[in-house]
Automatic annotation (TrEMBL):
Residues 97-292, 313-356 form the Chorismate-utilising enzyme C-terminal domain. Transmembrane segments: none annotated. InterPro entries: ADC_synthase (IPR005801), Chorismate_C (IPR015890). It comes from Aggregatimonas sangjinii. This is Isochorismate synthase.
Amino acid sequence: MFPALKARINEQLANGLPFVAYRKPNSDAVIGIFQSSTTVHKISDYSSEGFIFAPFDDIGHAVLIPLHEKIVATDYRPKVVPPSPKFQVDSTQRDFHIQLVQKGISEIKKGHFKKVVLSRRFQVEAKDSPIELLENLLSSYTSAFCYLWYHPGVGTWLGATPEILLRTVNKEFATMSLAGTKALQADNASEWGAKELEEQALVTDYIEKALNGKVANLSASGVETLRAGILLHLRTKITGQSLVGLQEIIEALHPTPAVCGLPLMAAKEFILQQENYDRQFYTGFLGELNFKRTEQRSSNRKNQENQAYKSVKRCSELFVNLRCMQLLEDKALIYVGGGITVDSVPEKEWQETVNKSSTMLKVLQNVR
C-alpha cells in the first residue's frame, strides 16, 4: 500500500492538487488525504471533518482538506537515513537573535511579560523531492507526528513535532504542557536547571487557568522528561471532560505559552513587532478534525445482543507545528525558536536554536 500512496502523492503534486500525508507518533500507518480541486477551504467553525492546518497568528485563516478521499498504508518500513551533510551554521543571524533575546529579557525585567518565545527562520538550498523528505522524516522520527502538507494556495510544509495541542474523543479531552529544552547527554539526562523548570511551570499553570470553567475534572500529571530526537523536553499531561465546544477549547489553548509567551497578548505583540519575519504556519497547529470512529458498544463476545449496536465517536487530534520547514522550489526555509525567561542566557538561547535546527537538517540529504 505504501508504494500506492507514494504514487498518489506524486500524482497530486504533478497536477497541483492539495493533499496531506502523515503518520501519528509510534504508529505503523501512513495516512493520505487528497483533494480533487484547488479550492482553499477556510474554517468557518470547527464542525467540519477533515485535516486542518492553522497559522500562528490568526486561526480564522486555518485551512481544511476535507475528508473525501483517504488512503491508509500500513506497510511502510523505515529506511536507513545516512548522516546528513555538514551544514554551516548561518552565523549572520547570530547577532540579531542574541539582541532579540536581550530585548526580550529586558521587557521581562520591566514586568511587561514573564516569558516570550522568540524564533528565527533561515534558508538552505536543497533539491530533495517532497516524498523523499517525507520518507526521511518517517524513518528518522518514529515517536513524532510527521507530515507533508501541500496546497497550491498555501504552500508546501513538512515537519516532525512532539507536541500535542489537544486530543478529544467526544467530550473526553487531553492536552500537554511542553516546555524546557536541552540536548540529549547521557551524563545529565535527568538534571534540569531553574530556567527550564520555571518555563515548564509557567506553561502548565497557564493551561490550567485557561481551561478553568471549560473543562471538568481537570487533572495534571507529574512533570516528566520527553525525548524528541536528540533533544529533551519537560512535559506534563493534562486531561478532563469538555464543557464547551471544540472551537472554544482551541481558542483557549492556542497559542500556548510554549510557543508564544505569558501573558499571552503582551508576548504576542512583542513577537509580531520584533521577530522581523512572518511565522505563517510555524507554531500553528495541524491534524485530524472531527474524524468519526465507529466502535462496538460491547467488547464481550458472549453479549451477542449488544454486539449488534455500534457507537460513533467524533475524534480530533491536533499537534503544534514545531519542528518544521517550508519548501520553495529548490530551497527550504527552516523555523526554530525557544522560550525566554528572566534566567535566559542569550548565547545559550542562540545555541538552542542551532540544536533544534538539526531536526529538520537531518532529513535533507541532497544540497546544492
